[in-house]
Protein: DUF397 domain-containing protein
Amino acid sequence: MMKKFTSWRVSSYTEAGGSCVEVGRSTSGAVAVRDSTMHGKGPTLEFTRAEWVTLLNSIRSGR
Structure:
């Protein structure tokens, strides 16, 4: 079953007309990332809440 993601947000690092990523959440708590240039029609990379937290912590710590 395909999850419905809502509340898509564009990265704060995106410049006007620039390409970047969007992050959305599902009602189940999953997190998805997609290419903002695809205007919602491209694939998404999906994470559980725990995987997302681990990814963000790794990025912040420079790993």
Q: What stands out?
A: The longest strand covers residues 5-10. The mean pLDDT is 84. DSSP finds one helix and four strands in the chain.
